[in-house]
Write a structure and sequence with these properties.
about 675 residues, five-stranded mixed β-sheet, 21 helices, 10 strands
Length: about 675
């Protein structure tokens, strides 16, 4: 019979090990929700075995608590392994793709310069052609003088702006520049919006400039109205992510075409891309019943970045709460695993005191990663309270036994203090643990002689392992600091290569400008100084033609077959290939390599023709949002990606999906 009972215990042990392995594999291979459900089911199954055998309730409760605590730690370690594996894979992709970063930095700079070239040169040269052509047709001396003065001033402005394009500084235009632009064109202008993000004001400036240029080309003599006002109700449905909108409208009543063949064919399409990338909407078309034209852009006036709470089952918090469960399971669950009701649970008052003190001693582990100093202070306070209750005879077992068995809680927090806090502040932690732990041990029944002397000796003995654990934490902190410094150095070198590639692109661009639009702009100024209005018009038209040819050549030079860098910046090139638009919100800053890759993978899964994605840089990570995928498998892939990155996937009220990718805590990310 004894042999049979021994076989039963062996089988039970094997079943428990298999169950823990299953929990670990679920945590490694599945998302948090499904793996946690599996862990709970296995825990309940283990607890059901003694219940079916007719064991007393306290014994069943002890089994459930103990199994739950151990399963929680195994599950949390599996989650940690899942995150480490995902980040290793992401870092490998990042290292493999960084070679493309300088190339695409050069291409991005080329696209920026091309857009600026179109806006600046087309605007100035078009005005010169229109004014010169009108003066030549009228053959009026006063009108000719005005056209020559305008050509001289606008030509010099064109030369300065074209030369600025090859410089290193490119400040975004604000509302002051919009005001000056409208005043220079003598249009009916009103602005009732005071402040807006730089990207929105730059887009507004480009909308007004392009619309005024087109009005000069195709609606000569028309009355033009420019309005910048807060959005009304018809624009509010397009706002997203807490954005408040303002609207830019430019309308004219129609007129005659000043000069044929002045356009480059990219104006309105470029404006639509610019406005959408800034987070707004754009439309242009006929206005009213006549031949008038209207341009309307809705843009963010302010952006409210969402606050994120770290879910309890994500990142380091998962292990922290699992340790809480383990501490409670070992202090309460193990005490209940006996045939008779244990002494601490014999009556209500001792049971209540024991449960409360066990909770106070275990719960601060949940603050281990966020505030280890406060957590340790709370644990030591709970231990002192237990000592006081022990002296009053209210608790069993004695505090000395509690510290001997569950002192790993204090040591765990001492290690976290070594990782998180500076050594001058953190050095108090092991000394405090030694002092309080020595007091707890000196109160035990086995101590003979003076308890003060025993306390001093025991505190000195405890100081050695406590200092060793604290030193281990300090070494861990220094190792992670070296890893962060090495990562920062790699990012600095990579950014330097990207800046060098962009500078080289500006140099090539400057050479092209010098032989095309810039040369003709200077010739316009020279002809205006000589009073040759016909030459002014011809040089300005030649500049526009050269501009159109240069832009066509730039578009033909796209490198569509090159591999994209898996970074946040690489999402822009990815969107261009898919015919989509990406909008960046929040202050751009360097991110960990793994987070960059996770954001790129998320955007790649959400990418489709014509969609607009939003990439928000938040204080604690990155959020990528866009239209919900039509294929369920894509959403499942997104959910798995967010889970592996330690983030979340949610749906907005308008059916879009939002993927939050947190920055990993550096001291636990490797």
């Amino acid at each position: 019979m004894n042999g049979f009972a021994g076989h039963v215990w062996v089988l039970a042990l094997v079943a428990a090990v298999c169950a823990l392995i299953a929990v670990h594999l679920l945590a490694v291979r599945r998302t948090a929700g499904s793996s946690l459900t599996g862990a709970v089911v296995l825990t309940l199954a283990v607890a059901a075995i003694p219940a079916l055998r007719g064991e007393p309730p306290h014994y069943v409760t002890g089994v459930a608590l103990t199994a739950g605590g151990v399963a929680a730690v195994v599950w949390a370690k599996g989650r940690s392994r899942r995150h480490r594996s995902a980040r290793r894979s992401a870092r490998a992709d990042y290292e493999a793709g960084t070679a493309a970063v300088p190339l695409f930095a050069a291409l991005a700079e080329r696209d920026r310069l091309a857009a600026e070239l179109h806006d600046v040169a087309a605007h100035r040269l078009t005005g010169i052609v229109v004014a010169a052509g009108a003066a030549l047709r009228l053959a009026d001396r006063e009108r000719t003088g005005d056209a020559l003065r305008h050509a001289d001033e606008a030509g010099r402005e064109a030369v300065r702006e074209l030369e600025r394009l090859t410089g290193l500084d490119a400040t975004a235009a604000g509302f002051a520049e919009v005001d000056a632009l409208a005043a220079a064109h003598l249009v009916d202008y009103r602005r009732t919006v005071g402040k807006a993000p730089a990207g929105s004001t730059e887009a507004a400036y480009r909308v007004v400039r392009e619309a005024l240029t087109n009005a000069a080309r195709y609606a000569e003599g028309a009355a033009v109205r420019v309005r910048i006002e807060p959005a009304d109700d018809q624009d509010k449905p397009v706002q997203a992510g807490g954005d408040h909108l303002f609207v830019v409208t430019v309308t004219d009543d129609g007129g005659t075409t000043a000069e044929p063949g002045l356009g480059t064919g990219r104006g309105l399409a470029g404006l639509a891309t610019t406005v959408t990338a800034a987070g707004g909407t754009f439309r242009a078309g006929p206005h009213g019943e006549g031949a008038g034209w209207s341009v309307r852009a809705s843009l963010p006036a302010a952006t409210v970045l969402p606050l994120r709470r770290w879910p309890l089952w994500r990142g380091t918090a998962a292990l922290d709460y699992a340790l809480v469960a383990l501490a409670i399971a070992l202090s309460l669950g193990a005490s209940l695993l006996s045939a008779d009701v244990p002494a601490p649970f014999g009556t209500v008052l001792p049971a209540l005191v024991t449960v409360v003190l066990s909770g106070l001693h275990a719960v601060p582990l949940a603050w281990r990663s966020r505030a280890p100093g406060r957590a340790l202070a709370a644990v030591l306070s709970a231990l002192l309270l237990w000592w006081a209750c022990d002296r009053a005879g209210w608790t069993q077992p004695p505090v000395s036994d509690i510290f001997l068995v569950y002192g790993w809680v204090e040591l765990t927090l001492v290690h976290s203090v070594g990782v998180r806090l500076p050594w001058r502040r953190g050095l108090c932690a092991p000394l405090a643990v030694a002092a309080v732990g020595g007091l707890a041990l000196a109160s035990g029944s086995g101590i003979t002689g003076g308890r003060t002397a025993a306390w001093a000796v025991l505190a000195g003995v405890l100081a050695l392992p406590a200092l060793a654990v604290w030193s281990w934490g300090r070494r861990t902190a220094r190792r992670h600091e070296r890893l962060r410094a090495a990562d920062t150095r790699r990012r600095v070198l990579l950014d330097g290569d990207a800046d060098a590639a962009a500078s080289a692109q500006r140099l090539l661009f400057a050479t092209g400008l010098r032989d095309t639009a810039l040369r003709h702009a200077r010739a316009v100024v020279a002809a205006a100084e000589e009073g040759d209005l016909r030459a002014v018009r011809e040089e300005a038209r030649a500049g526009l033609t050269a501009l159109r040819d240069l832009l066509s050549g730039l578009r033909a030079g796209d490198d569509a077959d090159d591999a994209l860098p898996p970074t946040v910046s690489g999402i822009t090139a990815l969107a261009a290939r898919h015919g989509a638009v990406v909008r960046y919100v929040g202050a751009r800053r360097p991110l960990p390599a793994a987070v960059e890759v996770f954001a790129y993978r998320t955007a790649s899964a959400l990418m489709a023709v014509g969609v607009t994605l939003t990439v928000r840089t938040l204080p604690d990570g990155v959020e990528v949002s866009g239209p919900a995928p039509a294929v369920p498998a894509v959403e499942r892939r997104l959910r798995a990606l967010a889970d592996a990155a330690g983030g979340t996937l949610s749906r907005t009220d308008r059916g879009a999906v939002r993927v939050w990718l947190p920055e990993a805590f550096p001291w636990r990310s490797e």
